[in-house]
Amino acid sequence: MSIGHGAGHPSGGSGLLTEIDHVAIAVHDLDAAVAYYGSVFGATVAHRERIESDGVEEALLKVADSYVQLLTPVRDSSPVAKYLAARGEGIHHVGYRVADCAEALQAVKDAGGRTIDERPRPGSRGTTVAFVHPKGAFGTLIELVEE
Description:
Elements: E1 17-26, H1 30-41, E2 45-51, E3 56-63, E4 66-73, H2 79-87, E5 90-98, H3 101-110, E6 121-122, E7 128-132, E8 142-146
Parallel strand pairs: 1-4, 5-8
Antiparallel strand pairs: 1-5, 2-3, 3-4, 6-7, 7-8
């Protein structure tokens, strides 16, 4: 089975990936980033949440049917804190919507891909998520998001 196209997938056009859920940007100062997007682009926060399990606080800015997710660490041991220390502010990952997170994660594994999560887990705003490791995904950290 190839990733992306196959029988039984929504619409057939995008395979398991139904649309872009969000682009995540790691920032040092969440309030400053929110203020920038508001003053420059008129963007407003659609959802804000602290995700203790990931050690981050997020602000989601609605853009059409997707989001810009601004992320800042709330503890030094979080993956986002380590990312900021190593690479500085910038794009952290891309979140793709999927109809079935477990099915999409299994497709990655079946194709020999490397995952960060062995099984789907709760995400922000009531979603189910799983991460695909950037090694094996052309250098991009991918989040699979089931609403």
